[in-house]
What does this fold into?
Amino acid sequence: MRPIDRRATPRDGSDEPKGFSKYRHARKDLIDRLGQYCSYCGTRLPASLAVEHVRPKKPNPDLELRWDNFLLACTNCNSTKGDKDVVLDEYFWPDKDNTFRAFVYTEGGLIEVNSDLTDDERELAQSTIDLVGLDRTPANDPAVADRRWKNRDEVWTMAIDARQDLAAQGTETLRKWIVNTATGRGFWSVWMTVFADDQNMRKRLIDAFPGTSKDCFDDECRPVRRPGRAL
It folds into this structure.
């Protein structure tokens, strides 16, 4: 899960903080800041991303139009999260924590909790997976209505092939092609995992995906604890 920086409320033409009469009106500003990607699973969706409320609007009507309560979500993540209220401290959040440290991405489009975390951190990471159903696969989704795992698997294969090609001919053109392919397909965390040993590619990926929190990485592009947070 990509750690992101949504930044402060955008400003209008008079340099005043924008007010949103409807939460859907924040979609363009969110996409400008974060790209056309689900804030949870990383899917790229140019047309159907929804403005997602971190704390659902039905039990929290006072938060319905609050910029700091907005993220972007695909249909699967949004519907799985649902309208049940959440206690923020019981989960990790991409706009607050270094969520890239929380999970491990592997072949087959699989996601699991990072075993290097503490017991308490692993509990929060698992709760986050459960909140949006990140670990759904054909084994636990017999109807295969949720294809996030399949899309991750396809991107994993593409990233592995790209890494092998880069090892054979490490040209600048190929590196640019890889970044363009990654931003075009989404699933930033998969690309970052596959290129874990390539600092140059990791830096390009961090820079290329809008809104990626650079505070979550050291000078060698290794994930570090987000300043002031538990992860």
Observations:
- The chain has seven helices and four strands.
- Residues 23-216 form one domain.
- Strands lie at 50-53, 70-73, 103-106, 110-113.
- The chain has one domain: 23-216.
